[in-house]
Amino acid sequence: MDTHGRGQSPLKLANATLANLPDPVQRPLYDRSALSPGIVHVGLGNFHRAHQAWYLHRLMQQGHALDWAIIGAGVRAYDDVMRERLLAQDCLTTLIELDPGGTSAEVVGSMIDYLPIEDGNGPLIAAMAKPRIRIVALTITEGGYFIDPGTGTFDSSHPDIRHDADHPAAPRTAFGAIIAALKLRRDNGHGPFTVQSCDNLQGNGTITRRTVLGLARLSDPGLADWIDSHCSFPNSMVDCIVPATGPKEISLARQLGIADAAPVTHENYRQWVMEDEFCAGRPDWDRVGAIFTADVHDFETMKIRILNAGHQVLANAGELLSVETIADCMAHPVLSAFFTKVQRQEIAPYVRPVPGMDPAGYVELIERRFSNPEIHDTTRRVAFDGSSRHSGFVLPILRDALEAGGPIEGLSLVEALWARMCAGTRDDGSTIEPNDPQWERLAKAALEARGNPQSWLAQREIYGDTASDPRFMQSFADWLNSLWRNGTDATLQAYIGSTAPNRD
Asked: Which SUPFAM superfamilies does the protein's record reference (predicted)?
């Protein structure tokens, strides 16, 4: 079968085939057999492989950081699927850049192993306990840090946390495994490692420290004090749009001449900003474009509020209108006008400029990135886990706007759209399948809110005291009633053309 214009079948991705890949495909220039590990990364999803692993790979291409290779890890049974796929191709990944100007591919080789996934996380603990591991990194999703979204405090009551507190040598969570490994390192005199969150959380390093120390104190307060004194938890901001992989992406890799069971597509944009706080050293990521700064907060606020909250502005409305992708949403005249108005009037005012970029310019950048028709980023993927994403991305802006006395109609409508989406049907009557770890609870509240909007805001674990703000309560109720009465398109147009729905 001629899959890439050369009359040849695609080559199975492996060390042995790298030299024979089609010429346009970039591949590792370094000797992968000479690499040694320095990082254990928990959560080997698409984003990590397109972002952090790529930065390290590009550094290795220059002959640096050859002792910082990545060992992959997971803590859930479903991670085994990715482990099998990656081990079968020597932990190589094909990154496919999707840009309106053309498609290109690069094989990344900075990951060299993937640990077995077992109950009690023995292999993970043993790997992290080895002194050659100097960084343990995480991409475990925004909702994976056991933080109460209403208060921002460590949730010590979660069943997995209680299990790890009672069984610290055989934990269920990544944080329990980190603590168990650090105990071995302390007891054996091997010193600490850096715990590096790469998730989209405001103050992700601070939150990671809070979770690790909170869990450690439940079983070993002395160890918690040692971790607090010796380990580092740098805050960081990560940015690259990376869609999910399905048959289309696997087929695209084959068209490029590569049989890759787990390719990754991504946009032509990356950013990584982090604090330079690494207790056991780090790769020189700044040689390949990463930014080290003591002022990560403004960078992460700009990105999380304009990009991540912006995704939530579009995704629920897109689902209700049966619009498949984020790029399709930006091509939709009503959705794009809604997005632009909310961004410029209700989000950008609560974002500070960073070196080289002001909020208005960043909104324009995000509009261009979201509009890339080559990026097949589905509204369903972006809408997933709204209970974490609205709590982390949208509601902090709403609280700032309420405190400042600024407009909140668009942000209230965003929350009403989420509530309407969680009722489980689109405007055309089709079913929205469960799309949140808390879907059953959300769906129940959403259906009750059709007759009583305050039933949705009664979810105090999400809204906290914001649910009691009279201005937000009224605005939310008006928009939700309009969505049920008039439909999504008409309601969005009402917002675009004015500041509030008709209450008649």
From this structure: 6-phosphogluconate dehydrogenase C-terminal domain-like, NAD(P)-binding Rossmann-fold domains
pLDDT recorded at residue 58: 98
Q: Please provide the average confidence, as pLDDT, over all residues in the chain.
A: 95
In a domain, 346, yes or no: yes
Sequence-distant (6+) residues with CB within 8 A of 238 are: 47, 51, 52, 198, 199, 200, 271, 272
User: Token pair for residue 186?
Assistant: 């302390």
Q: Give the angle 153-147-300 at the CA atoms, nearest 5°.
A: 95
Contact between 178 and 192 under an 8 Å Cβ cutoff? The reply is no
- Tell me the CA distances in angstroms from 288 to 62, 94, 387, one per residue in order: 9, 19, 35
Domain final residue, candidates 268, 294, 320: 294
Q: What is the pLDDT of residues 108-120, one digit of tens each?
A: 999 999 999 999 9
311 vs 331: CA distance, rounded Å: 14
Q: Which of 397, 376, 224 is nearest to 308 (CA)?
A: 397
pLDDT at residue 100 is higher than 90: no
Pick the closest to residue 41 from 198, 185, 146 (CA basis).
198
- 238 with 285, same domain? yes
> Looking at the structure, do residues 177 and 209 belong to the same domain, yes or no?
yes
Q: Is the pLDDT of residue 500 over 70?
A: no
Strand 264-266 with 93-99, pairing: parallel
200 occurs within a structural domain:
yes
User: 């399709």: which residue's tokens?
Assistant: 328
* H or E stretch at 93: strand 93-99
- What distances in angstroms separate CA 149 from CA 154, 465, 477, one per listed residue? 9, 12, 22
In angstroms, the Cα distances linking 249 to 28, 31, 255 are 21, 28, 10
Q: What is the pLDDT of residue 499?
A: 54
| DSSP letter for each residue of 118-164 | -TT-HHHHHHHHSTT--EEEE---GGGS-B-TTT--B-TTSHHHHHH
Distance (Å, rounded) from C-alpha 353 to C-alpha 40?
A: 34
Read off the pLDDT band of 101 (50, 70, 90).
Answer: confident
Q: State the total domains in the chain.
A: 2
Q: What is the pLDDT of residues 65-88, one digit of tens each?
A: 999 999 999 998 889 999 999 999
CA distance 427 to 325: 17
Two tokens, residue 217: 């104190």
Q: Would you state the pLDDT for residue 501?
A: 58
Confidence (pTM)? 0.88
**DSSP one-letter code for 425:** B
pLDDT for 121-159, tens place per residue?
A: 999 999 999 999 999 999 998 889 999 876 788 999 999
Residue 244 pLDDT level (bands cut at 50, 70, 90): very high
Contact 411, 442 (CB under 8 A): no
Task: Give dist(CA 156, CA 146) in Å, integer.
Answer: 8
The pLDDT, as a whole number, for residue 137 is 98
